Amino acid sequence: MRIWRAALNKRVINAALIATVVVVAVVLLRLAGATNALDRALWETRFLAGERPVSGEIVVVDIDAKSLEKLGVWPLPRRLFAELTDTLVKDGARDIVFDVDFSAASNPEDDAMLAAAFERAGNVSLAVFRQSASMSPEAGEVTNKPLDQFLETAWPVVVMVPMERDSRIWRNLYGFEIDGSAELSAAAFLGDYTGHTEGAFWLDYSIAIDKLERVSLVDVLEGNAAQGQFLDKKVVVGASAQELRDLFPVPVYSVLPGSVIQALGGETLLQGRALEKQGEAIVMGIAFLVFFLLLLTKIEGWAVKIVVLSLTALSIEIVAYVILTSSPVLVSTASAHFILIIAAASVVLRELGFHKLLSHLATIKRRNSERMLGLVFDDSFDAIVVIQDDGKISAASQMARTLFQSESLLGKSARDVLPLELVEEALSVLADHTGNKPVAKILSLSRQNGARRYIEYVVTRSERSVAQSGSTKKVATQSVACLTCRDVTEEREAAERLAYLARYDIGTGLYNRNGFEEKLDSATRTARGSGRKVGVVQVAIINLDQIIASLGFSYGDQVRKSIATRLKSHLAHKADWAALSPEVFAGVFQCDRDQDAEMIESLKEVVGEDYKIEGARISVQLKFGFIVSDGQMSPENLLKKSGNALAKVRRDRQVQTLAFKPEMDVALERRRTLETELFKAIVRDELHMVYQPLVKLADQSIFGVEALLRWDHRELGPISPAEFVPIAEENGYIVELGAWALNRGMKEALSWSSPLRLSVNISAIQLSRGNLIATVQEALHRTSFPAERLDLEITESLFIDDSLDLEFHMRELKSIGCSFSLDDFGTGYSSLGYIPKYPFSKIKLDRSFVRQSISNEQDIAVIEAVMHLAKGYRMAVVVEGIENPDQASKLKELGCQLGQGFLFGRPMSAVNLSTLLSNAA
Predict the structure, then answer these.
(1) Fewer C-beta neighbours within 10 Å, C or N terminus of the chain?
(2) Which residues constitute the signal peptide according to the record (predicted)?
């Protein structure tokens, strides 16, 4: 009897010690927060297991993506919220809660409309909340309250929600103290709650809040909501659009808008489902009791005890779920489950023993490793075949069976199912005992369709130990060859394709620049060895853009292909050809003295003829630039210098073909230097304005000036506008120069004693690349120059560019007071159609009509015609180029009233002009 009692006492003591250790471990886990994560996962599962319907008393009006897209602005105008309030009241809404920030003032009219709508409704509640003053925690918090004029006719409700440690919303507030006053929360207001305003309640996520009635705000405003949808309902207005960032992570539903979370809080309270956490100690006690009894029992077998513990855990969860469905109680069962889990681990350790457990785990790990290696082997991207020293296959991966088109490779002779080259290589490696490093090789096979197939392979030699027959202790070493291979046909074809693309233009089949440079290098080396010359010619299709603009890109591509076809068909024996860009082709050829001209003429004949493409006859306009060298020049320089010749001939309308000359390098270098220096001219204060007087011929009094831009470089000296202005137009810097000239001209004109008119020239680039209207307005505003004294001079060349909306710019600038002069009238693009279409106030007749003595009848006829034309359209005429008194007298006789020229003054500085005006006065 004593022995039995001693054994029982020992068993009880051991059980108590083990149970105590388990409880301590669980308490530590609970303090570390591990039980919280499990509890919330279990709660979420219970919520998902039983769904409760919504009450139907709450409706959400969504400021959703559809509303933002249709209304097109955020924040929404307050007048829209006023209209929404009136609509909801008209439709019978019982209460209206705005989860919208109305703490900042809008425009006074809209704010007044919204306050009036709240007063008419009488049942509106507005959002109040506290938030961090900045991203820094030390900055404190600020309170966001609606404007006082809104709170005079509406009630504040708190819309803050507490975020838990898992960064999700599990609870809502009954209320909160704001600026010393206890305010009810929006959820409590929606849930008809009348108790204390302190504390929070757990939300019931088993309520199917995704079935809540939600209506798009724009549908309410447009009258598309269902009739009676808001009758006697509580309405929550809030944002759900992602860009408005009023979204919160929650259990069950992942993410919900703040307005829907408030509605869920209201539903929780309406249905009496404000959850409370209870019962944790009870379920922990039950789990502990079950574990303790299992430790005392004499039941053998760890599996039975594990089943008992599992059934206990399941029973606890079932009871917790039943409690949740019948009453608003959340049972915390995580601690109990941890007790049961640790208990299960201790049972296994006690029953199996530690060493047995380690052995069992090692066996499982070995089996898993073997299984994993088998899967890796069979699923390998490479084809793997293991060949024994007798030539038979002992293993093959799925990819190997696919590659060699055989589903049964195991046990077969490798010679019967594999390419002979692979088998010979494998047997050779098996016979080689030197341990040479494996080398990857490529095997080329012929397909049935004649195409090639490429297999990359490598053979490695391995050894394995096997038991000798008739003995369990002796082992023998067996060698195997592992053949790893893959089909690299696509890779080889792709590499060949890339190699082709690296040297050839895909659209034409000609060499590209890389391939052409290789040919150039070869041609120069050949020329140096043979004593012949090497020529490089570049051909530009000048009108390719016009062809594409009128007929489409496909025609442009076909023109390029047709040119390439002619080059390959007729001139391939004379030169190697390339497509350097969409509109530039190039060729390199060997020639003797004076044979370059023959080559260029052949090229013109072949390429210059018209093309017939899809029924359309297309004529191409070509320019040719070329260079002939003795082979001493590098390929890069040959391309560069032939390109320089092409660039120069493209700017010359009269010439089609141009050979490179050394002086072109000097001109190009100067052009590059000027382009670089021009960007620094304004900063260095190298630019200045000069002014040429515009006079009345009757008394030669100055009524205006033409502003002209000048550049005095600190090292190169004065640079002609004819040289630097085209450069500025090509690189677009004319936009900045034009703005600078406008501002400087207006500023200096205001310093003169007389209120002269200021004429400034306008470039086409200022219209196409810049914002001329804004530039002029900014200059007028900055300088306070009267717009009525500003004349903008436009040359007739601007009218040939249909892409410029010249009429729009002129009408806009005229509306602010500016005037326009038609400059250089009669120099090549004249059309009487310009006169009535555009708002010109002056015509400037070009100096070419004012000869030394105006006695030529033709010139007189033109001048009289222009005068008559201008009179008919109520425009003034300014005659340019007047250099002597005879010309001035004759023009005055012909009725000309205004003039400009060296007779009245050359372009001069603002200071000199000011002196001239003072002397004239």
Answers:
(1) N
(2) none
Report how far residue 581's alpha carbon sits from residue 545's, in angstroms, rounded to the nearest whole number. 13
Long-range contacts of range 495-500, CB-CB < 8 Å, 24 or more positions apart? none
C-alpha torsion angle, residues 381, 386, 391, 394 (rounded to 10) = -110
Taking 80 as the threshold, does the pLDDT of residue 538 lie above it?
yes
Class of domain 383-493: alpha beta
Report the amino acid identity of residue 587: G
CA–CA distances in Å: residue 199 to residues 174, 206, 843: 6, 22, 84
User: Topology of 679-920 in CATH?
Assistant: TIM Barrel (3.20.20)
- Check residue 264 and give its pLDDT: 92
| Domain regions of the chain by residue span | 2-48+278-352, 53-272, 383-493, 504-660, 679-920
Residues near 727 by beta carbon (within 8 Å), at least 6 away in sequence: 671, 674, 675, 678, 733
Choices 3.40.50.1820, 3.30.70.270, 2.40.50.1020, 2.40.50.90: CATH for 504-660 = 3.30.70.270
Please name the residues in contact with 153: beta carbons below 8 A apart, sequence gap of 6 or more. Answer: 115, 118, 119, 122, 124
The pLDDT of residue 909 is above 80: yes
Q: Reply yes or no on whether the pLDDT at 889 is more than 80.
A: yes
Please say whether the beta carbons of 455 and 490 come within 8 A.
no
Cβ neighbours of residue 906 closer than 8 Å, sequence gap 6 or more: 692
Residue 480 and residue 483: Cα distance in Å, rounded?
Answer: 10
Q: What is the mean pLDDT of residues 655-678?
A: 83
Question: In this structure, which amino acid lies at residue 768?
Answer: S
Residue 693 reports pLDDT greater than 90: yes
Q: Inform me whether the pLDDT recorded for 325 exceeds 50.
A: yes
Closest C-alpha to 206, from 313, 327, 319: 327
- Could you give the C-alpha distances from 380 to 373, 437, 489, 921, in angstroms and in order? 10, 22, 18, 100
Three-state secondary structure call for residue 760 = strand
Query: Length of the chain, please?
Result: 921
Neighbouring C-alpha atoms within 13 Å toward the C-beta of 187: 32
